[in-house]
Design brief:
Keywords: Transferase. The chain has about 170 residues and is of the alpha+beta class. The protein has 5 helices and 7 strands, in the order E-H-H-E-E-H-E-H-E-H-E-E.
Length: about 170
């Protein structure tokens, strides 16, 4: 795995962000950790939403404050993933969504990027003075469970959400 950095999305990465979205849509994959990128029609509105949702004072209705990052490979400046850190949890996130959501583009999977993205995000959580972080995943997503466990995740329980079983892992940051 090559070195990556987590950076805040900017207009400089607009084309790559749209390519990232397109790759997920083409493959029929779930775009976790993208702050609703899959639902946007206007990339400028998405950028504005990220700025609003970064602070408690401006967070949009029905959302929680969050920091969204691009995972960018240093060697070629390519966006290989996205990760979203929710600063606090609402009831739904406590049960099913957790503090952190992430995704890696299909063409870059199984290279260790998810594990490194989560490690870097946990470091960011420490700077936010978070003591514990909840990470959830679909029970069928073995790769995500392994990524979480490799970063210190301890399975608390499994909850039923419709027909899906969600696993809830806690990571102690102290």
């Amino acid at each position: 795995m090559e070195s990556i950095a987590l950076i805040f999305p900017t207009k400089e990465y607009e084309k790559q962000i749209l390519d990232y979205k397109n790759e997920f849509e083409t493959n029929g994959d779930s775009m976790d950790g993208t702050a609703g990128l899959q639902r946007i029609k206007d990339i400028n509105e998405w950028f504005a939403m990220l700025m609003d949702n970064a602070k408690e004072e401006t967070v949009r209705e029905g959302r929680v404050p969050a920091s969204t990052y691009l995972a960018v490979r240093r060697s070629d400046n390519r966006v290989i993933g996205m990760i979203d850190i929710r600063h606090r949890l609402n009831e739904y996130l406590f049960q099913f969504g957790g503090h952190i959501g992430y995704s890696v583009r299909k063409s870059e999977r199984q290279k260790g990027y998810a594990k490194e993205m989560l490690r870097l995000a946990l470091e960011e959580c420490k700077t936010m003075n978070m003591e514990k972080v909840l990470i959830t995943c679909n029970k069928e997503n073995i790769a995500s469970a392994k990524t979480t466990i490799c970063n210190g995740g301890v399975l608390e329980n499994e909850v039923l959400e419709g027909e899906r079983i969600t696993q809830r892992y806690w990571i102690d940051l102290l």
